Each structure stands twice: as structure tokens, then as C-alpha cells.
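User: Structure please.
Assistant: Input sequence and predicted structure:
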Amino acid sequence: MITNKEYLTHSLSSLMISSAKIDFLLKKFGLNPDDECDYKAIDSLLYENVRFIMPMVNSVSEGGTSISYGGDEAFKRWYSMLCSSIGKDNVFVSKISDSTDLW
């Protein structure tokens, strides 16, 4: 059995999300970390909380330590696949529609 926390941790492993943030997301969404994984709920959590998980730091370097998240395109591809798998709109894709018939 995989738990909610294990699945969420695995889903976000490439984004270097802290355990504290994972606990925060689970609590915010009302999910018990130790319950058997509710895959649909976790996927919805990921979709609805993208602002908390999107990598923001682009470059930090100090004393021989370097952090560079960037990965913007990789993140957008991951998010696009998530949206496709749960049938939701991708917030990173602009929707321009022809409204000339409304004039």
C-alpha cells in the first residue's frame, strides 16, 4: 500500500519540494498523509495548488553552494501531462478564441 504522502512525495521528487511543504499541501487539502493513497485527490491537489509547487528560484550562489531551479519548460510539460490525465485546463496555455460571430 502506498500512502498519500508517499505518492505526493514521489510525484514532486524532481522538484525538490520539502517534506514540510508536502505536509502543508496534504493538510490544506484535508488529506491524511498516512491513509492509503487517493490518487484522484492527490492529482487534484497538484492541479489546484500549482502556485505552491512551481519552482521559482532561478539562481543562487554563495560560498561554493549553488541552487538553480529554473526548469520552467520541464515543469510546464509535467503540468501539461497532469492536466491531460485529469481532464482539466492547462493554466499555462493561452486560449484565444474567435469571437467575431458575437459582433
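Strands lie at 60-62, 65-67.
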